[in-house]
Amino acid sequence: MYMIVGLGNPGKAYENTRHNIGFDVIEYLADKEHIGVLEKKHKAIIGKGFVADRKCVLAKPQTFMNLSGESVRSLLDYYKADEKTELIVISDDVSLDVGQIRIRKKGSAGGHNGLKNIIAHLGHDSFIRVKMGVGEKPRGYDLADYVLGHFPAGERKAMDEAVVRAAEAIRMILAQDVDAAMNAYNRKQNPQP
Hints:
Layout: E1 2-6, H1 21-33, E2 39-41, E3 44-51, E4 54-61, H2 68-79, E5 87-93, E6 101-104, H3 113-122, E7 128-133, H4 143-147, H5 153-175, H6 178-185
Parallel strand pairs: 1-4, 1-5, 5-7
Antiparallel strand pairs: 2-3, 3-4, 6-7
Helix pairs in contact: 1-5, 2-3, 5-6
């Protein structure tokens, strides 16, 4: 069973912020696949169903970003999922341009506290992640303020399109494999005129 985990922070104050783009992908995927993400379990709000004919749990950890690993560890232990092949984590990434997607099979946290905590709870960094580019913070900005900020209108449109591409990429990971998805989606997106 696949665990598809979108990272974010719970609560109205954090909705539509850069840091919550993982939640946005889960909500879009849930809507398109008719999966109700309503059940409170494993320190997350989860929903069970099928994506690309694969049994999945969609999850939005409710621990706040910096403790995301607590929820991920609980989900993996309960559902006996293979953390290296059946865990897909969706997170924001300030080192990627707005709307760019990058899929990885392993790697460091890259300064992302949610990923850092997941790596700490797993004891390794070999799990699939879908990184969502939210753009580099402007000079002089505090990183926390930037990732907890909202997208300007133009960037929001690019991110909405990226959410759709991320959902397609996840379907491809499940239907084919992560390498196929990396080949198809790790190209830099050209901005729309």
